Amino acid sequence: MDDGDRSRSLLLGALAAQRRHVLAAIDGLSDAQLRAAVLPSGWSPIGLVRHLTLGGERYWFHTVMAGEPLDYWPADRPELDEGRPADWRVEPHETTDAVVTEYRDAIARSDEIIAALPLDAAPRHREPDWPATRFADLEAVLLHVILDAATHAGHLDAARELIDGRQHLVL
């Protein structure tokens, strides 16, 4: 295995581990528990999953790397968002199962995109205010998404411990 294959394997393994961690952190929670704001900032576990779907998987892989349109991004609704970005919003009529399915579907599409690109592939969509070397290729985007997902997996661990005392050991 050459260094590029090894790097790709390590990155994809780390990404998959964080995705599994997120799903394990919410597994077994009731709809009420998934929707409850546990920490003072006011986000709910299912809202965090929505953020990982839209602001993580879909934005970074579907839009930035594959160039797909940003037409999935929700419009700001300050009366519902309570100061949080709109990609954290889960409306009362949306089922938590549907939000989790949307996350799994976004992961599947992301994996297709990642599989089709070399690590040095340049993004097809760059934000105008990004410095030239920021998020220069798929490898940099993978690192960013892994770190973001790991941070949020830790947030979910804290929320879960407050909800029902369950603790998650990361090996």
If you had to describe this structure to a student in words, what would you say it looks like?
The chain has 171 residues and is an all-alpha fold. The chain has six helices and no strands. The longest helix is centred in the C-terminal third of the chain and has 27 residues, at 138-164. The two termini are 25 Å apart.
Taken from the alpha-carbon principal axes, the silhouette is globular
Distance between the termini: 25 Å
Using only C-alpha atoms, the radius of gyration works out to: 16 Å
Order of helices and strands: HHHHHH
Model regions low in confidence, pLDDT < 50 over at least 5 residues:
none
Largest sheet: none
Mean pLDDT: 93
Fraction in helix: 55-70%
Secondary structure elements and pairings:
Layout: H1 3-26, H2 31-35, H3 45-65, H4 78-81, H5 96-115, H6 138-164
Helix pairs in contact: 1-6, 3-5, 3-6
Task: Please tag this protein with its features.
171 residues, mainly alpha
Brief rundown of the structure:
The protein is an all-alpha fold.
